[in-house]
Write a structure and sequence with these properties.
By secondary structure, the protein is α+β, with helices and mostly antiparallel strands. It has helices at residues 5-14, 28-40, 69-79, 136-142, 159-168, 175-190, 240-248, 266-278, 295-306, 325-339, 354-364, 374-385, and strands at 22-25, 46-50, 63-66, 83-84, 94-95, 99-103, 107-118, 123-129, 147-152, 193-204, 209-211, 215-218, 251-254, 259-263, 285-288, 313-320, 345-351, 369-370. The strands form 5 sheets. Strands 7, 8, 9, 10, 11 and 12 form a 6-stranded antiparallel beta sheet that branches. Strands 1-6-2-3 form a 4-stranded antiparallel beta sheet, covered by helices on one side. Strands 14-16-17-18 form a 4-stranded parallel beta sheet, with helices on both faces. It binds guanosine-5'-diphosphate and manganese (II) ion (MN).
Length: 386
């Protein structure tokens, strides 16, 4: 689960990591009032930041520097309710529902600092680079030696590593930065974070260190023991379909294509998506109904696909093991009856109770195309969507 910047900064602040003073606003008027408040506290300028779950906002116009509360109001007015398209959002962009209005910092230097779960070493790694404000991948491409990378454990950072990081950032003997590193490391374990990325980590003209941006990804599998974070999962997506799927306990991700897919098993779902692409179309979603799915959830998942305006054909690809083909068939039939959808449906049901599954669909009299092999199923679905 990715957090919004303002949520991430609230966590950091609580953990003792300094962040710019800021206020969240959901209307232009609130944004202006926030700027007036910050001005009253001594801010000499403002930054208005669109709150979306994607980076690259700066280059996309989602981060605006403003001199006056009036300018803040105008910037918020331009961004709120619009869709922000950044290098990380995809072509549809992401709807902007809130702004973070912050005091403007007098920036002397920008660095990159992160703690990330590194799958190669199977540990959390500290990643630091002297150049900030740029994506770490771009920095590493330009000069791999510019990126310091070191494994860390669930124990206070040792002095030698802290000294190495400070040296790398050109801040040798800066005790305040050393303390900030340790506070961030502790936060990673306390909150079960998969990623804590501060880019840029800012050194101000007056010598303070602040997290000017923050990206946090929480491990979904640990939400059960994070009572403060778990409720945030509710409003994570502005996609009504994704929210509904989450409620149903289905693994569903919206994609940009036209073929709705219902599959059991993540591996099979990926293979199905690959074959759709191979046949010249794009999947409209990833949907793994899993093994222990119930008929209601199958029907609800199918309704999601059938009611999606982007979907032009649905491919149901089930390899019945734990999940039974008759249960899937009942769910599909129910969803078609409920929605009255006339979209082409391609069914591939093989494995447990496949005969009964076929019978149920045939008796319901809904028009579907049957496929025996996966490759054929993908081809039929792509043809049907044309
Ligand atoms: P991102 O593009 O989505 O990663 O958004 P960031 O929060 O990282 O903002 C992008 C850039 O805006 C930063 O790299 C900074 O250069 C600039 N920026 C952000 N906050 C401030 C600020 O308070 N003062 C100044 N001068 N620049 C800022
Ligand atoms: Mn950033």
């Amino acid at each position: 689960m990715r957090l919004f910047e303002h949520e991430a900064k609230a966590l950091l602040a609580k953990a003792g990591v300094a962040v710019p003073r800021g206020v969240v606003a959901t209307t232009p008027q609130e944004a202006r009032a926030a700027a007036e408040t910050l001005g009253g506290q001594g801010a000499r300028g403002f930054v208005v930041k669109a709150q979306v779950l994607a980076g690259g906002r700066g280059k996309a116009g989602g981060v605006r520097l403003c001199d006056t509360p009036e300018a803040v109001e105008q910037a918020a007015n331009a961004l709120l309710g619009a869709r922000l398209i950044t290098a990380q959002t995809g072509p549809e962009g992401e709807a902007v529902h809130a702004m973070l209005v912050e005091e403007q910092l007098a920036i002397a230097r920008e660095h990159y600092l992160a703690f990330t779960l590194d799958r190669r070493c199977g540990q959390v790694a500290l990643v630091a680079a002297r150049t900030g404000g740029v994506e770490i991948e771009a920095i590493a491409r330009r000069d791999p030696k510019a990126v310091l990378h070191a494994p860390v454990q669930d124990a206070p950072l040792d002095a030698a590593l802290v000294a190495r990081v400070l040296g790398h950032l050109g801040a040798a003997d800066d005790a305040a930065l050393g303390e900030m590193l340790e506070a961030m490391r502790a936060l990673v374990w306390a909150r079960d974070l998969l990623l804590l990325e501060i880019n840029p980590l800012v050194r101000t003209e007056d010598g303070r260190w602040l997290a000017a941006d923050a990206k946090i990804v929480v491990d979904d599998n640990a939400l059960f023991r994070q009572p403060e974070l778990a409720p945030l999962a509710e409003n994570r997506t502005d996609d009504a379909r994704e929210a509904e799927a989450r409620r149903l306990g289905l693994s569903y991700v919206r994609l940009a294509g036209t073929i709705g897919c219902m599959v059991n098993g993540a591996g099979l779902a990926m293979a199905t998506m690959d074959l759709i692409k191979l046949h010249g179309a794009e999947p409209a979603n990833f949907l793994d109904v899993g093994g222990g799915v119930r008929e209601e959830a199958v029907a609800a998942g199918m309704r999601l696909l059938l009611s999606d305006p982007h979907v032009r054909a649905v491919l149901v690809n089930i390899f019945g093991g734990i999940v039974r083909c008759d249960l899937i068939a009942r769910g599909v039939v129910r969803a078609v009856a409920d929605t009255g959808a006339r979209l082409p449906i391609v069914l591939r049901l093989v494995g447990t109770n496949e005969e009964e599954g076929r019978r149920i669909v045939a008796e319901a009299g809904i028009p579907v195309r049957w496929a025996r092999e996966l490759n054929e199923a993908a081809r039929l679905a792509v043809e049907a969507a044309r």
